[in-house]
Design a protein that fits this description.
By secondary structure, this protein is mainly alpha-helical. It has one domain (11-181). Helices cover 74% and strands 0% of the residues. Helix 1 (11-32) crosses helix 7. The longest helix has 28 residues, at 109-136. It starts with 10 loop residues before the first helix and ends with a helix.
Length: 182
């Protein structure tokens, strides 16, 4: 008789999956750097939901999802986390809206800020997992080179945070200058 796990997989099938889970967790830790636990909460939630472990989904708490730095300084936060494309989209969007709809009120900013603060950590987790998976699939790298590349691709960038803050300030100055002219 074949022994099965709680997910219905045989023990022989579950062993490689458990090893892959540990490997991905280790690589994500390399990517996240300090404070990896905060972002690994989303990995554990996603893994448990995918594998349906313990018969129920483990959920990340609401305040674990909130990112107050991303709420108040979203562009700087995305640049700080080396997510330059996401930061650029957030930077360009209010400019495009202001150009296309000059009379449009930006009174919904509070709601947008709260939405960004709730979505920032999960977006960063999925971004990290995608980057790690892409690097891990490269066959031209030794394990040490792969780990070094993952470490360099992740982490934080103080320069990115300063650049994001400066760009945010520049956009606000442009928007305010345009509003006072009209």
């Amino acid at each position: 008789m074949t022994e099965t796990t709680t997910t219905g997989a045989t023990v022989a099938e579950a062993a490689p999956a458990a090893e892959t889970d540990r490997s991905m967790e280790r690589l994500l830790r390399l990517f996240f750097g300090r404070n990896a636990e905060r972002f690994l909460l989303f990995y554990y939630e996603d893994r448990d939901w995918t594998n349906n472990r313990h018969g129920a989904r483990r959920s990340v708490g609401y305040f674990d999802r909130m990112n107050f730095a991303a709420m108040f300084f979203p562009i700087a936060w995305f640049f700080y986390r080396r997510m330059y494309l996401y930061g650029a989209v957030l930077l360009v969007t209010p400019i495009v809206i202001a150009l296309l709809f000059p009379s449009f009120s930006m009174s919904g900013n509070t709601g947008i800020a709260i939405a960004i603060s709730v979505m920032a950590n999960p977006v960063y987790f999925y971004y990290a997992r995608q980057r790690v998976t892409r690097i891990e699939k490269r066959i031209d790298l030794s394990p040490q080179s792969r780990d070094d590349l993952i470490r360099r691709a992740g982490g934080v960038s103080i320069f990115g945070a300063i650049l994001g803050g400066a760009l945010t300030a520049a956009v606000f100055i442009i928007i305010i200058a345009g509003a006072t002219k009209g």
